């Protein structure tokens, strides 16, 4: 195991690859029962989509109004919660038909979202992670993410996995593993080299972590990446 500033740095093995829409500016990613749910960003291009993992086929697509820049999503009690970047509004959809059920509002930017079944867990681009009541969307508490020396900012797409928060760091090849109580970084996963140099030319930053809890499978992708990778963390 390699350590940096007393924090373990994990590497990866590629278990499998799946096709990914290269026009997809990935902002949120979750997995359930053979399907990925994905949120994409950019004004006038933002979407929510249901994608078959194996084929990359888009089975359902919802376009956001042109004024909204889509951000993170999470699946909570058969509903999809989707953030927008600067509009301070989130959308709640029926998971099965993408019908809009409700909206919710927040005071920060919206970046990533996940949940631990008790709270919605949200990042806003800073070092803060907010824990929200999923019924009234009020902040219950928050944590400040840090290593031994400094705050870790630009926390982006999130996934709550086995008691830890995993976070993409915007413009970085690393995923942070975060203690949800203290905010302390418990590890880094260095995903450099996932895409070949040629693939990387047309691709954006890594963003998108999804977890298959039934089969313990871990998926990552990025903005305009040609592939979704199933990886094993080592
Ligand atoms: Ca995620």
TrEMBL record:
Query: What are the record keywords, sorted?
Result: Transferase
One example GO MF annotation? glutaminyl-peptide cyclotransferase activity
Q: List the Pfam families hit by this protein, alphabetically.
A: Glu_cyclase_2
> InterPro entries under this entry?
QCT, Quino_amine_DH_bsu
Keyword RNA-binding present in the record's keywords: the answer is no
Q: Which SUPFAM superfamilies match?
A: YVTN repeat-like/Quinoprotein amine dehydrogenase
Asked if the Swiss-Prot or TrEMBL record annotates the protein with the keyword Transferase, the reply is yes
Its recorded name reads Glutaminyl-peptide cyclotransferase
* Native source organism of the sequence: Clostridium tagluense
């Amino acid at each position: 195991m390699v350590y940096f500033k007393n924090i373990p740095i994990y590497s990866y093995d590629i278990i499998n690859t799946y096709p990914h829409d290269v026009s997809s500016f990935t902002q949120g990613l979750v997995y359930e029962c053979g399907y990925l749910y994905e949120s994409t960003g950019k004004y006038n291009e933002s979407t929510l989509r249901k994608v078959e993992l194996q084929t990359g086929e888009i089975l359902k697509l919802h376009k956001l109004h042109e004024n909204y820049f889509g951000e993170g999503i999470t699946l909570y009690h058969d509903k999809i919660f989707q953030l927008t970047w600067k509009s301070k509004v989130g959308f709640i959809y029926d998971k099965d038909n993408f019908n809009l059920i409700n909206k919710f509002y927040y005071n920060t930017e919206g970046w990533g979202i996940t949940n631990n079944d008790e709270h919605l867990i949200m990042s806003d681009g800073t070092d803060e992670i907010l824990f929200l009541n999923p019924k009234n969307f009020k902040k219950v508490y928050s944590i400040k993410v840090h290593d031994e020396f400094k705050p870790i900012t630009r926390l982006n797409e999130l996934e709550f996995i086995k008691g830890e928060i995993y976070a993409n760091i915007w413009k970085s090849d690393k995923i942070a593993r975060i203690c949800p109580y203290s905010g302390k970084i418990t590890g880094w996963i260095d995903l450099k080299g996932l895409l070949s140099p040629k693939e990387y030319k047309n691709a954006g930053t890594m963003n998108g972590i999804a977890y298959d809890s039934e089969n313990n499978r871990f998926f990552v992708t990025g903005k305009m990446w040609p592939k979704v990778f199933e990886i094993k963390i080592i």
